[in-house]
C-alpha cells in the first residue's frame, strides 16, 4: 500500500544533484598539488556521496589519523568551494520532479551531511524551478546522518509528521536515517553507489531507477 506523502526530502550529492564532476576536479587538483597521479572520473564517482574523507582515502590511500591527511582534505575542500557549481547539475529528470512538486504545492527540501558553508553556496548556484522549503546541512543539528535527528528537524520545521515525509537518498546511511526517523524511504539507484553496495539489503520502501519514478508516488 502506497503511503500518504505530504512532502519530499532529498539527500543532495548523488540524489538531487550530480556533484561528482566538480568534486572529481577538486580531488585531481589536490592530487596534482601533492605530486600524485590523477584518477579517472569513473574511479572517483562512486565515493562522492561520502564526502572529503572518502575522497582523500580514494586518492591518497590514507586514513584520517595519518600525517598529512587533514592538510589534503582542507586543500580539497578549498578547491571545491572555489569551483562548487562549474559542472554540477540536477540529475536528468529531477527538474521535472521539482516542477511537479512546485505546481502541486508539495513542500520539498534538502537533508544532507554536507556542511552549510558548502551546501548554501551550492544551492544558491544551482538553477531550480522553485525554492526549497527547508535545508538541513550536516552541521545544522548536533548529529548528522545516519542519526535521524536532521530528518526529524526538517519535518518539525515543515510542521509535517515524519511518517508523511518521503526521504530520498543514494547511500545506506540515508535509508538508515529515514527509517530511524519513521519516514518512508526511497533509494536513488541512479546515484553514487559503490561496487560493494547492496541497496536491496537496505530495505528502502521504494527503489528509483530514475528521478521521474518519484512522480508515481505523489
Report on this structure.
The radius of gyration is 17 Å and the shape is globular. 38% of the residues lie in helices and 12% in strands. Strand 6, helix 8 and strand 7 form a beta-alpha-beta unit. It has 218 residues and is an alpha/beta fold. Helix 1 (20-33) crosses helix 4 (69-82). It is built from eight helices and eight strands. The mean pLDDT is 96.
What integer is the average pLDDT? Answer: 96
Proportion of residues in helical segments: 25-40%
Based on CA atoms alone, the radius of gyration comes out at 17 Å
- Total beta-strand segments: 8
SSE blueprint:
Blueprint: E1 7-10, E2 17-18, H1 20-33, H2 41-44, H3 51-60, H4 69-82, E3 89-90, H5 94-104, E4 108-111, H6 116-125, E5 134-136, H7 149-158, E6 165-169, H8 172-180, E7 185-188, E8 206-208
Parallel strand pairs: 1-4, 1-6, 4-5, 6-7, 7-8
Antiparallel strand pairs: 2-3
Q: Briefly, what is this?
A:
The chain is an alpha/beta fold. The protein contains 8 helices and 8 strands.
Question: Keyphrases for this structure?
Answer:
alpha/beta, globular, six-stranded parallel β-sheet, two-stranded antiparallel sheet, 218 residues
Amino acid at each position: 500500500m502506497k503511503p500518504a506523502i505530504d512532502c519530499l526530502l532529498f539527500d543532495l550529492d548523488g540524489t538531487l544533484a550530480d556533484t561528482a564532476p566538480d568534486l572529481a576536479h577538486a580531488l585531481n587538483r589536490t592530487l596534482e598539488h601533492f605530486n600524485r597521479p590523477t584518477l579517472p572520473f569513473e574511479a572517483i564517482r562512486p565515493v562522492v556521496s561520502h564526502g572529503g574523507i572518502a575522497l582523500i582515502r580514494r586518492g591518497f590511500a590514507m586514513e584520517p589519523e595519518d600525517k598529512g591527511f587533514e592538510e589534503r582534505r582542507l586543500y580539497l575542500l578549498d578547491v571545491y568551494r572555489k569551483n562548487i557549481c562549474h559542472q554540477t547539475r540536477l540529475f536528468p529528470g529531477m527538474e521535472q520532479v521539482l516542477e511537479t512538486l512546485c505546481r502541486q504545492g508539495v513542500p520539498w527540501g534538502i537533508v544532507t551531511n554536507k556542511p552549510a558553508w558548502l551546501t548554501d553556496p551550492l544551492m544558491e548556484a544551482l538553477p531550480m524551478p522553485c525554492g526549497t522549503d527547508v535545508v538541513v546541512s550536516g552541521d545544522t543539528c548536533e548529529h548528522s546522518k545516519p542519526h535521524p535527528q536532521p530528518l526529524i528537524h526538517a519535518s518539525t520545521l515543515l510542521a509535517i509528521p515524519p511518517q508523511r515525509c518521503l526521504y530520498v537518498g543514494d547511500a545506506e546511511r540515508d535509508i538508515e536515517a529515514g527509517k530511524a526517523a519513521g519516514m518512508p524511504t526511497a533509494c536513488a539507484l541512479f546515484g553514487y553507489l559503490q561496487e560493494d553496495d547492496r541497496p536491496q539489503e537496505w530495505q528502502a520502501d521504494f527503489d528509483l531507477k530514475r528521478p521521474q519514478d518519484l512522480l508515481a508516488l505523489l
